[in-house]
Structure formats: structure tokens, C-alpha cells
Amino acid sequence: MSKSERKSKLPAKPTHGYEFGGPIGTFLLTGVLIVTTYSLTYLCNDVTGCPVPSLLHPSTLTLEKLKRETGWPKDGIYGLVSLEATGWVLCYYLTSLTLYAFLPAQVHVGSVLESGGRLKYRFNAFSSSLLTLSACGLGTFLYGSSFPLWTYIWDNYPQIVTANIFIAFALSFFVYIKSFSVTPNNPSNRELAAGGHSGNMIYDWFIGRELNPRVNLPIFGEVDLKVFCELRPGLLGWIVLDYAFMAHQYSTYGYVSDSMLLITAFQTLYVADAMYMEAAITTTIDITTDGFGFMLAFGDLVWVPAVYSLQTRYLAVYPVDLGLSGIAGVLAVQGLGYYIFRASNNEKNRFRTDPSHPAVKHLEYIETRTGSKLLTSGWWGTARHINYLGDWIMAWSYCLPTGIAGYLIKANPLAPTEVVQGEARGWGMAVTYFYVLYFAVLLIHRERRDDEKCHRKYGADWEEYRRRVPSRILPGIY
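The structure assignment produced for this chain is given below.
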């Protein structure tokens, strides 16, 4: 089939079936994600403890008691919404968009699309982040931990979460409706995602119907919505939350604990690495395969900043001091994970962009009938997603500094408030170690989705690849 023939056709309806339990599963999952986000926000708090005391004695649990212990708004769900907070969050998005549009950028060409075309991407997330964080640093230098940004985030955190949820919903509906304007043989190389146009509205809205939805905005020009949301503002928002929580710890206790410094440093490094290597996202499954719908919008804008910052929010209320041995242990875990993650990704990206490079030209590979090359030696000969192993090991270094987590807040009108572990010790780990459990499920699910996609694409070549590289993530075990 010629390029022009391929380009004149819209992708056929997917033949690989539903994911996440289909329409009913994705509808329920939408609710579960929202409830989980708010539960993690309120059940571990600075009002009564982490977890709230009633959860330690379920027989005493009542709805009114739970509301009181969680600091639930007096006006109910309406208290979760703040027009002021929503306005400030939108200002943050506008700032990110402005930096994207006007700072110098590198232009990269993406992977070949089903139509045969390739999209161009404008990347400057690293310089945008540096400028944003520098402004935050200047504010902190001038005002200390009382910098209004930090105090506002702490005081209005649930309302900020709600604002991002609204934005995720708005984007999801917008791109879903917009996807019906995709036409055959369009000059913009617009395509429907292979798994996102099943014909069921709920499912397609959740998964994402259009592969790379773009908008042309006055002043700002063309913006790829999926790529924009992938790293900013959510990923940068995660670090901004970390810094706000660190500032709160300092305001409350007069110092910043070594555990807080470690987690914040690790997560800053992770985000800075992603921003610096921004062009690498063009080869990820999020960009090449998944449509942009509620799943990615909520994940990028709500789940990442709210869930990934759980540990620093915990430490803001209950500092943990690790000591030299604890620091050394956590550093070793982080170093191992980062080395595997970055070395493997660098090897893959270098091989894809310049297979004659001295560092990768010796690697063995299978060349498929479609012309793709699948590495069978080096890092990618040890496991088909060895980078996921590094990512998961790093996740442990974010959780371990919280220790055997859990605390209770004992308020006394005649004495300073006490924060002690007491009977909550260990139970708080359901919150502070939630990330590492969730991340394991996420990576296993992503690996299986990718395996199915590649098997459909490469057929017998992928079966041979599986035979040569039998491990999925953990060499010799899984």
C-alpha cells in the first residue's frame, strides 16, 4: 500500500478488545480515581492524624466523627471548590503555556504515524522549569518559608486538587468532541488512536479517541495537548508541592529533616531528568499509541502531583530523622534505581537515533518485517522493560524515608500540640507506601499492554524476540 493510500484511510476499529473492564470498568475507574485522590488527601491530615484515629477503631466509626477528624469542609462537597484557587491554578497553567510558546525551544520530529506522516514537537520544558523554580526560589529567599505561594498551597490544597480535576474533565470532553473532526487525508496528520475509537462513548472518552490532539491558539500558536500535559504542568506541579510541604515543615518545626531533603532531592532529580530528556517521550507508549482522554489527562494533571507528593506531605507534619546510616541506605537504593533507569533509556534512545554510535553499534538485534529493530543484548537483552525495574527501585527511595509511618495529633488547649506515633505507628504506611504498590501495578499493566501491542504489530518476530529475551521486567524472575 502506498503512502497516499495509507493516508487516505482512518484507522480501522480496534480488534484487540477493551481494557480496564470496558465501558463499565472505565466508568467505575473514573469514580475510583477521584475517591482515592480525596481519600488520600483527607484520611492522612494535620488535624487528627495519619490515619485518622477512627480508622484504628472501626467499631467507633461514624460519618460525623469521620468528617470531624478529617477536617471535611463544613459546607460539604461545596467546600472542595474555590473560585479563587481555581483562578490561581489556571494562572499557573497560563504561565506554563506562555513559557512553552515564547522561550527558545528545540524542534524534534516524532515517530512515523500510521498515516506515514511525522509530527514536529517543540521542546523547552527544562528551561521553562528552571525559570519557574528560580522564581519560586527568589520568593523563598525574600520571604522565607512564609512565601505566599507555599502558604497558599498548604492552606488550599484540597481546592487546588479539585481545580485540577475540573481541568482534566474539561480537557477530556474537549478532545473527545474535537476528535470527530478528524478526516481522511488531512494535511495535519491527525489520527485516531488504535484503541480509542471502539464506538462506545464512555470507553473512548476515558481511553482517548484522538492520538495527538492539537490546538492553534491566538498568540501561543500550535500546542500538542498530550505532550504539553505529559511533563507540564503536572510533573512540575509535583515538585512545587514538594517544596511547599518542605516549607511548611520548616515553618512548623524550625528545621528541614534529612528525610524531607532526601525525598525532595530525589524527586527533583527525577523530574529534572525527565524535563532535560524531554524529546525521549516521543518514543513512549503514551505518545505513540495511547489516545489523549481522561486516563492521561487525570493521570498527568491530578494523580501525579497529588499522589506522588504523599511522602513529603506526610513528613511536613511528622518529620523523620534518618541519621547517617539511614541516609546511606536510601542513597544506595536511589543510586541503583537511577543508574538502571537512565543507562537503559539512554542506550535505547541512542540506538534509535544513531545505531552507528560507538556505544551501541555492537548491540545485537532482531530486524522485523516492518523494518523496526528490537534489541536483544545490552540492557534490553536482560529484560524487555528493564527500565521499569529501575523506575520501581527509585520508587522505594521515595517511600523508605518515611519509615514505619503513622502519627496521631494530640491537641491540648493548655499546651502545645503534640504529634506522636502512638497506636498509629505502622498504619500510616498504607498512605506513604501507597505509591510503590500502585507503581508496581502500573508498570506491570503497562508492560503487558505494550507486549500485546507489539505482538499484534510484529507477529512472529515478536515471538522470536520473547524467546531471546524471556524476562519482562525483573531478569530471571518476571
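Interim note for the steering committee: The chain has 19 helices and nine strands. Confidence is low (pLDDT under 50) at residues 1-14.
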